[in-house]
Amino acid sequence: MIPYESVYFYLGALFRPKRILEIGTNVGRSLIMTVLGANPTNVELVVSVDNESYLPNSQSIARQSLIDFGFKGELLFLVGDSKDPEIRSVLHQYTFDFIHIDGDHTTEGCLRDLELCWPLLTNDGYIIVHDSGDDMRVKDAVNSFIDEFDCAHITLSDKILRHGGIILQRNGVT
Fold it and tell me: What's the burial of 52, exposed, middle or buried (CB within 10 Å: 0-12/13-18/19+)?
């Protein structure tokens, strides 16, 4: 299995995002590696949403790590749940070309995050959903979303990304 962080570094290098949103950041390992892969000096904006249920102060740890690795762009760390109307209102002020969803793993929660993020995604952007390989609730949410929104997708097996994942993109975009 490829180390978890390496996959996000590669995705950052491949897609070269300038505006990144992550829902479910914890201490920011995947977020940091995505930014490093994209080159911290080329990323303009990083927005993180996490309720800090796994580790108090995890958003502060992620923020400081990005700064330590040379990130100079705009940082916005929101402590709370992505279903919170205030957080949703803040997110709707932005667009992103790379969105990583690793938050609420219930079918309803994951689907809600996908529906929140889809209008925030630029036409040439990507959504990565983690844990869609071994969590049937996440997998069901992703499959339902793909059926409803007819989006292009590539599955990342658990041999590539621990617990699997899926990359979503608007159809008709090359």
Answer: middle
